[in-house]
Amino acid sequence: MIAKLAKTCTLRISPEKLNFILSDKLASGGVSMWCELEQENIFSEFQMEGVSAENNAIYLELTSENLSRALKTAQNARALKIKLTNKQFPCLTVSVELQLSSSSSSRIVTHDIPIKVIPRRLWKDLQEPSVPNSDVSIYLPALKTMKSVVEKMKNISNQLVIEANLNGELNLKIETELVCVTTHFKDLGNPLLPSESVSQSRHPEDMAEVHIDIRKLLQFLAGQQVTPTKAVCNIVSNRTVHFDLLLEDVSLQYFIPALS
Q1: Beta carbons within 8 Å of 207's beta carbon, 6+ residues apart
Q2: Per-residue confidence (pLDDT) for residue 195, from 0 to 100
Q3: Are 120 and 171 in the same domain?
Q4: Residue 163 and residue 169: Cα distance in Å, rounded?
C-alpha cells in the first residue's frame, strides 16, 4: 500500500510503533501521509535503541518499493528478521528463512535495502500532522466504487471538486467548459465531530467543498489493497481534504491540499 502511495518515504522506528511518513509539503504539491503500526502486533521480538533516552527513535529514508519487494519474498517464510546494518553504507537488512519443500532444512535469503539515516535536526519536519478542524466529516463509500468513478472522470479533467454535508451526502464533481459531471453518494452517515459547536452552527444541507488534483485522489484510491474497517473523509473548505482509514492493525492518514 505504501509503495503505491509514496515512492520514497520515512520510516520512523520507536519502542512501541512503526510509522511510514510522507511529508512532501513542496515536492508533491503538499500531499502528506502518516501511517502507524503497533510493533507488538507484528513482531514476536523487538529491540531498538534510539539516539538517546528522551529521543528514543530512529528515522530512516527508504525507497518503499525496495522494502515491499523484499517482504513479498517472505510470504511463506518460517521466520523474518529486519535489522539496521552498515555494509559500507547504511542498510535495512531483511533476512528471510525459507523452508525447503523437499526436506526439513531451510535456507536464508538476505535483502540489503539502502537507506539514509535522517539526522535529528530534521525530525521536526516529520512529526504527526495536526488535523485541522473540519467543516464536514463523512464516512466514505466503498473505495473500489469511488476509484472506478474517479478513473472515468480523470479522462475528462485534471481537477475534481469533492463536496459533502452533514446529511450523509458526498458528491464528486468535474466541470469543464463543455461538460459538468457529478456523482452523488447518499446516506453515508457522519461521524460525530470533536467540536460539536461546528456542526450545530452549520446547516445539515450545506456543502463543504474543496478543489483538488484528481491524480492525487486516484493515487490514494489505487493504494488501497484491503477494505478498511473505517474510512472517513474530513473536509476543510477550500483548504484540504483529510482521509482517515483504519485497516486491521494499521491506521492511515492522508492529506490532499486544495488547488490554489
Answers
A1: 136, 163, 164, 165, 169, 171
A2: 57
A3: no
A4: 8
